[in-house]
Design goal:
With 395 residues, the protein is an alpha+beta fold. Helices cover 30% and strands 18% of the residues. The strands form 2 sheets. Strands 1, 2, 5, 6, 7, 8, 9, 10, 11, 12 and 13 form an 11-stranded mixed sheet that branches. It has a two-stranded antiparallel sheet with strand order 3-4. Strand 3 (185-187) and strand 4 (190-192) form a beta hairpin. Helix 1 (53-68) crosses helix 3 (108-117). The protein starts with 17 loop residues before the first strand and ends with a helix.
Length: 395
């Protein structure tokens, strides 16, 4: 997923199952939210100046799973996952002579692969030492160009052989930033390795599957989503759109969280309120128009207004938006439940990784229409999939 980040803002209170604060579009009256069902969550984190939404959202999702299953509250280490993922991705780029991208982004499967292959550690076992600027949050501004230069110098070389110590050089840069990888550590009075700690969590990694919905591959089969950050070519099960939405709503109503990969680049996306798909999707921006040439000013595209209704999303619309690059692989988040507004319209509740910004403490709401239109894929516990759909998928 592409890198997307904002500074942390301010937390708002939540009490009694009802939120009230964000303005409600035209009349500026407070929007009221009533929670229908929500999964347990750990605290909102801040990925800051890094393209690690895939990492934060996936670990947040697994932390919710641990809470749901009564296994306790954990703060799993993003730095541990980032180190291993970037080393693996660099190796793939070199082995393919630069054909695989080396980028900050990633996929949900990168985290699942790390958990299964390398294990994990709690946050305190690999304390983040502070960035090269002394920040307490991720800031890849200085570190990433160094890592990229090492990888590209090898991947793009015309030499007939390459020096294998490039991996040591990259590892030094990454560990110099993220901290030294622990081989053993103490946690709550017990000694662990990363592998034994991952096993102690008691999650069955094979229970977690990726789902999507596109027509260029047969339904009820699986395929690798053709997006740059799916560099491991992880497989997603392909469902018709109505069954993907049915699955997501069913999971939310049963108290499951969902790792959600989506496009957040649309002008009507609202990270600090409620996002819907406008009933009129035409681009009304005057940017580049004759009007802008003479006035020197450009208006922005239309914003969704609840009173005007919402666009009905079809499978064909969804496919077209993927094929023509209108829907892009932007951001990983966690869907953690359902709520309804004062008009009875249901929205998914979303946990973000941009800090505890206003008005909902780093959380927001998305309509089912937006989810239908702009979801790239989800990571979900297969037990959260309705039985009849699981049967069709053969899982």
């Amino acid at each position: 997923m592409k890198k997307t980040f904002l500074a942390a803002l301010t937390l708002i209170c939540f009490a009694g199952g009802v939120w009230a604060q964000a303005p409600r579009n035209k009349d500026n009256t407070p929007r009221q939210w009533t929670v229908i069902k929500e999964a347990p969550l750990t605290s909102v984190k801040n990925q800051n100046r890094s393209g690690t939404c895939w990492n934060y959202s996936s670990l947040s999702y697994f932390e919710s799973e641990l809470l749901r299953l009564g296994k306790g509250e954990f703060d799993l280490c993003e730095s541990f996952v980032a180190y291993h993922t970037y080393m693996d991705r660099a190796t793939k780029r070199v082995r393919t002579h630069g054909d695989v991208s080396f980028a900050e982004g990633g996929s949900f499967y990168d985290v699942l692969y790390c958990l299964k292959t390398y294990g994990i550690c709690p946050q305190e076992a690999m304390p983040f030492p502070g960035s090269l600027y002394g920040d307490s949050l991720f800031n890849f501004t200085a570190m990433w160009p160094q890592a990229e230069a090492i990888v590209d110098a090898i991947a793009k070389t015309k030499a007939k052989s390459i020096p294998l110590q490039w991996k040591d050089n990259l590892s030094n840069v990454l560990q110099g930033y993220f901290g030294e990888l622990p081989t053993t550590f103490e946690y709550q009075g017990k000694s662990y390795t990363p592998q034994s700690f991952a096993a102690s969590l008691g999650l069955n990694w094979d229970d977690y599957v990726s789902l999507t919905s596109y027509t260029h591959e047969p339904f009820y089969t699986h395929f690798a989503l053709e997006i740059p950050d799916n560099w491991r070519w992880a497989q997603s099960y392909n469902l018709p759109l109505d069954e993907l939405l049915q699955t997501m709503e069913y999971a939310a109503r049963q108290g499951y969280a969902i790792a959600w990969g989506a496009d957040v680049s649309e002008p009507y996306f609202k990270y600090n309120g409620a996002t819907m798909v406008p009933s009129d999707l035409r681009d009304r921006s005057t940017s580049g128009s004759d009007a802008e040439r003479w006035t020197g000013q450009a208006t922005t595209t239309i914003q969704p207004v609840a009173d005007e209704g919402e666009k009905v999303i079809t499978q064909e619309m969804r496919q077209k938006a993927y094929d023509n690059w209108e829907t892009t692989d932007d951001h990983g988040m966690v869907i953690y439940g359902l709520a309804q507004d004062q008009d009875g319209k249901e929205f998914f509740m979303v946990k973000n990784s941009w800090g505890e910004y206003e008005p909902y403490g780093g959380k927001f709401f998305v309509s089912k229409g937006f989810v239908a239109y702009k979801t790239m894929n989800i990571l979900i516990n297969k037990n959260a999939i309705p039985k009849q759909i699981r049967k069709k998928l053969g899982i």
